[in-house]
Amino acid sequence: MRSFAISTVLVMSSMLASSIFAAPTFASTAAKTEWQETRSWDAIFTQHQVEPQQAKQQQAKQQQAKQQQAKPQKTKSQQASGVVVLWNENKQQGYTNNLKRANQGFLPASTFKIPNSLIALELGVVKDEHQVFKWDGKSRDIATWNRDHNLITGMKYSVVPVYQEFARQIGEARMSKMIASFDYGNEDISGNLDSFWLDGGIRISATEQIDFLRRLYHNKIHASERSQRIVKQAMLTEANSDYIIRAKTGYAVRAEPSIGWWVGWVELDDNVWFFAMNMDIPDAAGLPLRQAITKEVLKLEHVIP
User: Fold this and answer.
1) How far apart are CA 262 and CA 293, in angstroms?
2) In whole angstroms, what is the distance from residue 243 CA to residue 159 CA?
3) Is the pLDDT confidence value at 127 over 90?
4) Model pTM score
5) Residues annotated catalytic, as ranges
6) pLDDT 10s digits, 155-181
7) CA–CA dist 168, 171 (Å, integer)
8) Which of 111, 118, 170, 257 could form a disulfide with 250 if both were Cys (CB 3.0 to 4.6 A apart)?
């Protein structure tokens, strides 16, 4: 059980992350051929229903039909579909409910804010976690975007315009070189420089996300330890006396079907569990299922209480 305050967590866990669990040599999950597939997790997906936009439109028609005394038709929801991948760092063992999908590449969407932040810090586009990025004055549908941000809040609220400006300042040549040095997904940044992670050629699988996250945790990315430390601080999502979660969500709304992501890791007193989940999300109303399903799996495997 952790007895220290969350403020201490921010500093100490970032500083000690690589030293506590690091092995003498780092084994990439990409070279790991043994993954354990457990279809029992599928039941966690199937017990959740996702409602496509068409169903919502049908509900509106039902209401209109009711008002007109017509017999309404039943709307259809569909079972959630996706994959969860876990990696037990102590045992050097991976687990998933669907090995085929675990190795299938998808648009990273806002999970790309993790490498984007690293690159921006390395190249001096971002000085540190305190630098303020002024709101451009353009009103957007997401209210939290309509204000000034720093790296911490930009990550927390997944502020796309801030990260698009990072990409423009980084430039295509430097972005391509850094992504290749990170061995990130298929390394294809074709498309618009300021949106390729949303609708371009880049793809990354859940197992590749795990590999990248493990290297970040152990400060094994081709970037300074300082940059990696700041990014890990920005990824802080939840901290309590039992565990710490550092993670990032993503929503590839321009993909067909739309894909939701949640990737990161759980820090325990004596182990680290990495996770990457993606799922089909027909409508934004299903976005909370990314965290809900992942946490249900983590609880089932006794990673978190």
Assistant:
1) 10
2) 26
3) yes
4) 0.86
5) 110
6) 999 999 999 999 999 999 999 999 999
7) 5
8) 111
